[in-house]
Amino acid sequence: MPRYFLGRTIALVLTAFAASLVVFVAMAVLPGDPAAIILGTGARPDTLAALRAEMGLDQPVVWRYLDWIGGFLVGDLGTSYTYSVPVADLVAQRAAVSLPLAVLALVLSTLIAIPVGVYAASRRGRAGDLATMGVAQVGVAVPNFWLGLMLVVLFSLTLGWLPASGFPGWEAGLLAGLEALVLPAFALALPQAAILARVTRSSVIETLGEDFIRTARAKGLSGEAALWRHAVPNALIPVVTIMGLQFSFLLAGTIIIENVFTLPGLGRLVFQAIAQRDLVTVQSLVTLLAVSVIVVNFVVDLAYAALDPRLSRGGAR
Amino acid sequence: MSGAVQKPRGRLVPAASPSLVVGLVVTAIFVGMALVSLVWTPWEPTALNILNKLEPPSLAHPLGTDFFGRDVLSQIMAGAQVSIVVAVVAVLVGAGIGVPLGALAAARGGLVDDVVMRSTDLAFAFPALLTAVIITALAGPGAVNAIVAIGIFNIPVFARLTRGAALGLWKRDFVLAARCAGKSDLAITVEHVLPNCTAVLVVQATIQFALAIVAEAGLSYVGLGVQPPQPSWGKMLFDAQTYIYSAPWLAVFPGLAITIAVLGLNLLGDGLRDALDPKVRRAR
Amino acid sequence: MSRLLEIHDLRVEIPAPTGAAPILEGVDLALDRGEKLGLVGESGCGKSMTALAVMGLLPGAARATGAIRLDGQDLLATPEREMQAIRGRRIAMVFQEPMTALNPVKTIGAQIAESLILHLRLSKGEAAGRARALLDRVGLPGPRFSLDLYPHQLSGGQRQRVVIAIALACGPDVLIADEPTTALDVTIQAQILDLLEDLVAEMGMALVLITHDLGVVEQTCERMMVMYAGRVVESGRTRDVFAHMAHPYTRGLFAASPRSALLTSARDASGRKRRLAAIPGQVPDPRHRPPGCAFAPRCPRAQDDCRVAPPPLAPLGTPDRADHAAACVHPHPPEAGATAPVAKPEGAR
């Protein structure tokens, strides 16, 4: 186990560095001189040169990378060209919207998907299974941004229960903040829940065919008890991996969903930064997102090992 | 021991499952709609008619008209073209690069394999849609950049899949026989390994195709896909959002079109998987 | 007075689009407390199905008719909820595959304690104490074999001991052991059988031992039943069956068993080294059984009258062998069995 852990940690660090390098190179290669964009087309050459020097754009590429990544490691993500505030502050401010949104979506999707998947598996081939999996099949196909629009039409425009867009800020109160996040979270969660429910179902069905389920039934456990006590704990181990992958989908999903609901989150920040060629912000933000995906996958790997005693406990033989 | 009952051997062409049939029909309708729209649509998709703007569905305009009086049905038909072209090319780009990479990794192993696999790990660290948005935003919106942005993330998917399938095949006896016959790695890959990977690749391609349609719609929705006046489903959704209070039906139909197209492709993929993968068939 | 376990005219069928396929037909069985019954036959002959029918754990689509009585109570008519109180409490089962019969994510202690808590309403602590004692009894003493071990930390034989501990936890009246040693190394097989025998004697329960190994039956069971294609083809006291072997299938099984080589001379009359005789052909598919005796297509003694109707299990009427019965139109005469246990089926030459 310690060896496994060490190996994974080294891989984690290397992948994260490689990701930062990819982002940096991509940004350096892509067209558009940020200094020229800030100053506009009518800028005088000497002002341009001065700004370039101030932004460090006249430095050699390697130095610029080291300077950026060195700062990155100590939490200095650079200074936004357009907002003139540290990128770290921007990120923290916007993450206060995106992170709760992603977590809420993940929680919703899990709370919906696992019971539905287990239920469908337990009714395999019968009406309940066919109905829920039919709905899930459609759910997988629904684009989350359209679902968001439809939820707005239904719950905001028709029923008037929830705000259609915008975010009042957490200072407006927890309830007001959550209210603004409910629809976007459902829009993100439902298609993911459909995927997760399908995975859960097939995993549970596979486990229900295992010999140890028969052992459990032979002990006198009811079908229900064998399902929940013996099949589900085994079946959920692979499901955890899928949940890790979903985090990456959810991050990507927020960028579009935040546009549907005009939420001031990281997705909107990325958009605004790109539109204003605020390259340092884009670069740091994308790297940060990539690193968080890598870290989440790492945590999922560890969770997987912790859940499965065959991996975490050494064998006697 | 009760399972040792002899079963008659499976037919070579398995019975078509309902999902395969429905998937095929829906996909055929979707492709047919795009083809028909090349020569005929009820109305000119881009024809403006301000007098008839924001009409609800009627006999003349079965799905209504948008803010510029354009016929929604005609736009949806023409929009299928973009979805198909972008998705097909993006999947072809991904498979065209990913499959050879995966086959190479499997054939060579060692360092080559490590490099390919670690590169795919790296690629999976970037949320696909988010990165596609950033690429198109920085490189400029348009169909070509959308294809590149979506295609890039198909490369690791196909590379991994091909490698996994090929690795299993390299251990098989017929490959061993070909090696003993002195065939080169390349010849074995082309003659024996890749043909045997076709089934999994085709199934994956339909799934990636569905994902690409959603990704294209997403890019168009945020204004980074194909540019007007070429109609596209994502762009229609974006436009519809502006009038969601006065004409909510505008947002319904393009989304339905995306959902049905993706549903059809997913069913087709499921059906193909069941039909082509003997392991799954037996497990049913 | 009713027997402990009595099966009468058990028929199990699995509905299929082509018409119901009978997996078991006309199976009768009776077992008293303390008795050990061997159930033998090739794979697919219905031994495990019989066991699962008794447990009430037949695969979803299968339908059972007839009667399975435990102390007079018909289990086939017993509602599922009551069956749950019987399973593991009064009838327990040991399975063939110890590698997969245990839940990999639960400790062995928890898996043993589970039925104690369920049936005997023990507290967790009491159940753990009992589980400890059970593990000690099946030959997995603490502290080396902690209750906190996971199945993957044990060998196949050790796992089978855990499975046995689970089955015995609530002191059942009937233990069904379905090929308990088949998946184990030869050296371990004897240990596990000895353990089972000791436990059965100690706890006074009845044992149904399912196996394809005639030697095991001979060693362990007073009575035996030979099954073929879902029917009982020969039954009786073990020594009677072994002495006579009335049904050609029983002889075929014996000839195919490695044990026959030990019991008879290693060389036959002509001095050639004897080889194990496999029974030619295969157990027929339940959907395509021949109209007459199901063994006829493979039988060296088959004649036209064998192919008319399945012969019933009938007493052979041999003096002093009251129980001995066979389902055969042309059974071997008793003398042949007594003197030459192995008559090689013609087809196997």
Task: Please tell me about this protein's structure.
The complex is a heterotrimer of chains A (317), B (284) and C (349). By secondary structure, chain A is an all-alpha fold. Chain A has two domains: 45 residues, no CATH class; 225 residues, MetI-like fold. Helix content of chain A is 78%, strand content 0%. Chain A contains 13 helices and no strands. The longest helix of chain A is centred in the C-terminal third of the chain and has 38 residues. The radius of gyration of chain A is 24 Å and the shape is globular. The mean pLDDT of chain A is 85. Chain B is mainly α and 284 residues long. The two termini of chain B are 19 Å apart. Helices cover 32% and strands 19% of the residues of chain C. Chain C has an eight-stranded mixed sheet, with helices on both faces. In chain C, a hairpin with a 6-residue loop joins strand 1 and strand 2. In chain C, helix 4 packs parallel to helix 6. Chain C is globular. The C terminus of chain C is likely disordered. Chains A and B meet through helix 1, helix 6, helix 7, helix 10 and helix 11 of A and helix 3, helix 4, helix 8, helix 9 and helix 10 of B.
Question: Brief overview, please?
Answer:
The complex is a heterotrimer of chains A (317), B (284) and C (349). With 317 residues, chain A is an all-alpha fold.
Which helices and strands, and how do they pair?
The complex is a heterotrimer of chains A (about 325), B (about 280) and C (about 350).
Chain A: H1 2-29, H2 34-39, H3 45-55, H4 61-73, H5 87-122, H6 127-141, H7 144-158, H8 174-208, H9 211-218, H10 223-260, H11 266-275, H12 279-307, H13 309-312
Helix pairs in contact in A: 1-12, 5-6, 5-8, 5-10, 6-8, 7-8, 7-10, 8-10, 9-10, 10-11, 10-12, 11-12
Chain B: H1 18-39, H2 72-108, H3 110-124, H4 128-139, H5 143-152, H6 154-170, H7 173-180, H8 185-221, H9 233-242, H10 249-276, H11 278-283
Chain C: E1 5-14, E2 21-31, E3 36-40, H1 47-55, E4 63-70, E5 73-74, H2 80-86, E6 91-94, H3 98-101, H4 108-120, H5 124-137, H6 156-168, E7 174-178, H7 186-203, E8 206-211, H8 214-220, E9 223-228, E10 231-237, H9 238-244, H10 248-256, H11 258-263, E11 314-315, E12 325-326, H12 334-339
Parallel strand pairs in C: 3-8, 3-9, 6-7, 7-8
Antiparallel strand pairs in C: 1-2, 1-4, 4-5, 9-10, 10-12, 11-12
Helix pairs in contact in C: 4-5, 4-6, 5-6, 6-7
